[in-house]
């Protein structure tokens, strides 16, 4: 049943008024710190993908082959292309390893779209200060998060994850247009058009995630590219639809059948800023609670890979997608197939300890020690052990039979490490950044890495944020 926006103004107007009006001084310290961590995190995972993801290399080759005006830098490559093309390539890099930010209750990655769009436009405009960049980035994430949060309706609540919509992509078009538009200096009226023009390009389905054989990580490239392009179009005076969210054919009525919470779009607008949460393992978030659980079971019971007869992971309808087709999930052929595999990620934790980039790239996905364990992993259906829509919790349960006849049981509730309820520490994110940049296509000295970390940590004092991209490219 459609929730037609009769007699009231579309929420897009309040959102863009806020987007245009908020200043750095209006941001709480927590929001500033979260944004800086998100920038560092996205930068690191993008740099790591420059040598570890073949699909990204093809994308970089493609956008440089197409060419055009030299405006914005491709991370790790150094060449410049038009801003929307740089956003496309850098978004693919940012999400390629599935190691970027993720906010569990909203089932959405924000940085993989906001980060490349913001940096691409900042370079195109030139001389964007750290304070302005932090402010714009924070507002872009907040806007996209509000669009996602509005889907967590009371009453008739639907898990749109099961309906095939890819939330990261759908709301990403608006977030990218928001940051690109503000950085380009658009006033509120033009920002409305920018978001409308972005909406005209909106798409995003989950087939790329549930199927096998696809280069899954590239999907954020579409909204990053289109959002930047929409902002550039609005800057030229091109008009877009103005009721892009709540209109008769707006986002919520067309894509979500009018089932949304209008109040969530503007509640505490300008006073409360929603930020990102983070990953500590380079694989699908639905695997993280299982990884944590099996690492605890190893610590408690002191078993080794050779001791195992079989492993049963309990899953629901969503998590089951990470177990089928079983032969592929046990023996992945591509990085993405390994990242979206419960057998492979659980086996990696058992065979290697904390899963790292090296286990999902190159020879890592063919490691015989991991594969010998992953081929012992099966699953049992139990809806209690699946994503909890609204909280983002993904409870874990596991049964491990040993060759000596013992059967071990483990169970874990609540959110994973990295869920907003259990935030990743700054120290762990800094360590993750150092791990990531070790894979840079252009080797970075220890001094350069330290300089980047310090620059982002003190981003409010930076006079031109483009310097950060130059340091890694």
Alpha-beta content class: alpha+beta
What topology, given as strand order, has the largest sheet? 4-3-5-6
- The whole-angstrom Rg is 22 Å
CATH class identity of the largest domain: Mainly Alpha
Identify the CATH homologous superfamily of the largest domain.
Answer: 2-methylcitrate dehydratase PrpD
Q: Can you tell me the CATH topology of the largest domain?
A: 2-methylcitrate dehydratase PrpD
Q: Could you list the spans in which at least 5 consecutive residues all have pLDDT below 50?
A: none
- Run of helices and strands: HHHEEHHHHHHHHHHEHHHHEEEHHH
Question: How would you portray this structure in words?
Answer:
The chain has 20 helices and 6 strands. The protein has 2 domains: 11-280 and 452-472, 2-methylcitrate dehydratase PrpD; 285-412, 2-methylcitrate dehydratase PrpD (60s Ribosomal Protein L30, Chain: A), CATH 3.30.1330.120. The chain is α+β, with helices and mostly antiparallel strands and 473 residues long. Strands 4-3-5-6 form a 4-stranded mixed beta sheet, covered by helices on one side. A two-stranded antiparallel ribbon has the order 1-2. 48% of the residues lie in helices and 6% in strands. Helix 2 runs parallel beside helix 18 (426-437) and helix 3 runs antiparallel to helix 4 (83-95).
């Amino acid at each position: 049943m459609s929730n037609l926006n009769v007699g009231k103004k579309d929420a897009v107007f309040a959102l863009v008024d806020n987007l245009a009006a908020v200043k750095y001084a209006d941001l709480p310290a927590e929001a500033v710190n979260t944004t800086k961590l998100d920038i560092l995190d996205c930068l690191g995972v993008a740099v790591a993908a420059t040598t570890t993801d073949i699909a990204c290399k093809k994308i970089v080759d493609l956008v440089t082959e197409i060419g055009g005006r030299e405006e914005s830098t491709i991370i790790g490559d150094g060449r410049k292309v038009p801003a929307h093309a740089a956003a496309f390539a850098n978004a693919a890099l940012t999400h390629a390893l599935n190691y970027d930010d993720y906010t569990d209750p909203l089932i959405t990655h924000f940085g993989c779209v906001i980060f490349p769009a913001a940096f691409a436009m900042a370079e195109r405009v030139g001389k964007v200060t750290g304070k302005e960049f932090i402010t714009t980035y924070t507002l872009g994430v907040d806007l996209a998060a509000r669009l996602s949060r509005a889907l967590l309706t009371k009453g008739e609540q639907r898990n749109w994850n099961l309906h095939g919509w890819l939330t990261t992509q759908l709301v990403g078009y608006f977030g990218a247009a928001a940051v690109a538009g503000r950085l380009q200096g658009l006033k509120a009226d033009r920002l409305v058009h920018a978001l409308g023009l972005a909406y005209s390009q909106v798409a995003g389905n989950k087939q790329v995630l549930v199927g096998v054989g696809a280069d899954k990580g590239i999907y954020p490239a579409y909204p990053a590219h289109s959002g930047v392009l929409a902002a550039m179009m609005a800057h030229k005076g091109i008009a877009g639809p103005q009721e892009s969210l709540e209109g008769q054919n707006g986002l919520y009525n067309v894509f979500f059948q009018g089932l949304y919470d209008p109040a969530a779009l503007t509640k505490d607008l300008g006073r409360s800023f929603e930020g990102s949460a983070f990953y500590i393992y380079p694989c699908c978030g639905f695997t993280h609670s299982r990884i944590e659980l099996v690492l605890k079971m190893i610590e408690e019971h002191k078993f080794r890979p050779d001791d195992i007869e079989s492993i049963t992971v309990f899953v629901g309808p969503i998590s089951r997608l990470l177990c089928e087709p079983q032969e592929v999930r046990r023996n992945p052929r591509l990085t993405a197939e390994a990242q979206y595999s419960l057998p492979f990620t659980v086996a990696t934790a058992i065979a290697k300890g904390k899963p790292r980039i090296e286990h999902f790239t190159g020879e890592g996905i063919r490691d015989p020690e991991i594969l010998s364990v992953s081929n012992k992993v099966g699953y049992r259906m139990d809806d209690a052990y699946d994503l909890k829509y609204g909280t983002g919790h993904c409870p874990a349960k596991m049964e491990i039979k040993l060759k000596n006849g013992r059967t071990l049981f483990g169970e874990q509730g609540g959110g994973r490490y990295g869920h907003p309820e259990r935030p990743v520490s700054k120290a762990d994110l800094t360590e993750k950044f150092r791990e990531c940049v070790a894979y840079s296509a252009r080797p970075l000295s220890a001094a350069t890495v330290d300089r980047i970390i310090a620059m982002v940590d003190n981003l409010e004092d930076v006079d031109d944020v483009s310097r950060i991209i130059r340091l890694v490219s």
